[in-house]
Specification:
two-stranded antiparallel sheet, rod-shaped, 5 helices, 2 domains
Length: 150
């Protein structure tokens, strides 16, 4: 008799451990472990979520923006230098170097600001998407007779 209880207890524990990251699912109508698993899978599919961790927000937006801006700044300074070649050609090489570096720095700062802004927007959007999916999942589970607690 102990052998028949052990698999049931193990399956119940595994189901509750599986969903511990998404919250605790408490059956209110005496649902079987198999039904709990089916309902949870159906609600996750409906809500567009999964048991795995959500996509992580990208990091390094400022650094990528700065690098992109620096490259753009160097290209712009080169283009400006070639369009003003009469003035630019007469300058000392140190002055030319300073000009190119200043243009790259200015563009890198602008790129860093834009990259940071995009990164914040992406994170905000990810949080909103996650909250909406969590709400949809909780509603679905409640409609099927479960209580979901964080």
């Amino acid at each position: 008799m102990k052998k028949s209880i052990l698999p049931s207890v193990a399956s119940i524990l595994s189901i509750f451990c599986l969903y511990a990251t998404a919250g605790t699912v408490t059956p209110l109508k005496g649902q079987s472990p198999e039904l709990i698993q089916q309902d949870t899978s159906a609600c996750q599919a409906q809500a567009g979520t999964s048991n795995s961790a959500s996509t992580s927000s990208q990091s390094g937006g400022r650094a990528r923006g700065a690098a992109t801006g620096a490259v753009a700044g160097a290209a712009v300074s080169g283009a400006r230098a070639s369009s003003n070649s009469k003035v630019y050609d007469n300058l000392d090489s140190d002055v030319k170097q300073d000009y190119r570096q200043n243009q790259s720095k200015d563009a890198a700062v602008a790129g860093m600001v834009v990259g940071g802004s995009r990164q914040r927007q992406d994170r905000r959007s990810d949080r909103q998407t996650t909250a909406a999916a969590s709400s949809a999942y909780n509603t679905c589970m409640q409609q099927r007779g479960y209580q979901v607690t964080p």
